[in-house]
Amino acid sequence: MALRRGIYKSPAQLRAMVAPGRITAAMLQAARERIVPGVTTAELDAVAAAVVRESGARSNFQLVRGYRHTTCISVNEQVVHGIPGDRALVAGDIVSIDAGAEYEGWNGDSAITVVVPDPARPEMVAARQELSRVTEQSMWAGIAAMAHGTHIGEIGAAIEEYVTASGHGYGILRDYVGHGIGRKMHESPSVFNYRTPDPGPRIQPGLVLAIEPMIVAGSEDTVVEDDDWTVSTVDGGDGSHWEHSVAVHADGIWVLTAPDGGAAGLAPFGVRPREIG
Description:
Creatine Amidinohydrolase, 4-stranded antiparallel beta sheet, 7 helices
């Protein structure tokens, strides 16, 4: 029981996590605005890095042993952990950007997926946009479950139910899951993106989780590429990744990495976030 008590933060610690969440959101917004055909993933990484420096924070991704970039950027069949480099985006690409910031000893972690416009291939773009939409909305379904649920297991169940109800037959990665976040970017507990027999720890004030469904258009089977980081689908199917860091406090929940605290994303689920006092 001691381990489970240790996953909950104090009100003061929750307040300290607001700033790194906002910085992380600003990193992703800045990178999103630069996504056009021809931009390289390294250039997008540099945009996010500039936000970190200007904010007086540091990239928590660079604190991971062996990783020297500010973000992970994954394109098309790459689902997560793609390494920024000289790859230039082309029209129609589906691009996931994962970023995080450490500020005054506390962490934020978030991810978005963007489809590069391509008027010449509207059907492909529409299919990729739908994959991104379902992934994002399944994340919000999980966050909504965090708002009204009693145990962490309900988050994964809500994510899986939303993906299944879409009717597309999308796969949910099983080997890569969400996590607690606080003094470290990755903390206990694990947050599965699918239903499990274990209900998991209780959802109560002080809990902070990074909820991050990773959804693929085809088979769930993946392989780690030769760079030892990038996770790609075996069948070449597209991948999408969305993530937010979310805090439970005495008055409700607050999405730390959303500029509006999650108000817009949670509205369709009847949940109104409350700022951390």
